[in-house]
Specification:
- The structure is a single chain.
- By secondary structure, this protein is of the alpha/beta class.
- It is 35% helix and 14% strand.
Length: 249
């Protein structure tokens, strides 16, 4: 092969090589759509435990991860069957906590229908509300509950959505099916006063702020063509966080 042929072949291979996007280690977004600058941490007066399904954890647009970045004293725990998860069981057995699960159903206390006096009895005096939230599809959430024996006896709460979800970049089963971050926000809206959080401060709106900024940026990228599919490059730390190395954190 002569030099010209070699150089031509080299350029051809270079042009066909995958185009990689560097991902932020925290929000797992490509650099151009990183939303970390919009994250404003606050303490909601409760500890939120986000149980994220492995498939959901690998999604770039995972609002459970986003919630974890915003909420102080929150946990992000990967898994599907939490029966023998050490951290989950430690939280459930902690005598200083009152654990509840945000999960809709006939056995759930509906915050939207409760009077203030009734809400006040939800959390025993001197206990820290620890709210478990499953982050995944409806199908994976149901499966998680069925498999995780330790989660089945936790008291459950829910709410009645008063407006459609704003998750315009990801298809929801129904208009009033909220994303994880929207559901956590609404729970704080309805139960924040019970745990000493000043709802009138509107600090919990910081959850919706970063969520809406992410949605707007995703729409802008789709319209401009900036969001065309590319190969993703995961750092070593990010692989570990997402469970791509086989390790559970």
């Amino acid at each position: 092969m002569d030099v010209q042929s070699y150089l031509a072949k080299k350029e051809k291979l270079k042009s066909e090589a995958p185009v990689y996007r560097e991902l932020c280690d925290d929000c797992v977004q490509p650099k151009f759509s990183c939303y970390c600058e919009h994250v404003k941490k606050f303490d909601p007066g409760m500890d939120v435990v986000i149980l994220i399904h492995p498939i959901e954890l690998r999604r770039r647009i995972a609002t459970g991860r986003m919630s974890h970045l915003v909420l102080k004293n929150s946990y992000l725990i990967r898994g599907q069957d939490y029966s023998n998860n050490v951290l989950v069981n430690q939280l459930l057995q902690d005598p200083t906590r009152h654990c509840m699960m945000l999960y809709p159903g006939k056995n759930s206390a509906n915050l939207s229908e409760m009077e203030a006096k009734e809400k006040a009895t939800l959390v025993p005096e001197g206990k820290r509300l620890t709210l478990f939230v499953i982050d995944g599809t409806w199908a994976t959430a149901v499966k998680t509950i069925r498999q995780s024996l330790n989660l089945q006896t936790i008291p459950r709460i829910c709410f009645s959505p008063d407006k459609p979800s704003n998750f315009r970049v990801r298809k929801q089963p129904k208009d009033f099916c909220y994303s994880t971050i929207e559901a956590i926000h609404q729970t704080i809206e309805l139960a924040g006063d019970v745990v000493g959080f000043d709802v009138n401060s509107r600090r919990h709106d910081d959850l919706l702020y970063v969520f809406e900024k992410m949605v707007e940026r995703q729409i802008e990228c789709a319209q401009s063509g900036e969001a065309k599919p590319r190969h993703l490059r995961y750092s070593r730390d990010l692989k570990r966080k997402l469970g791509l190395t086989g390790k559970v954190f």
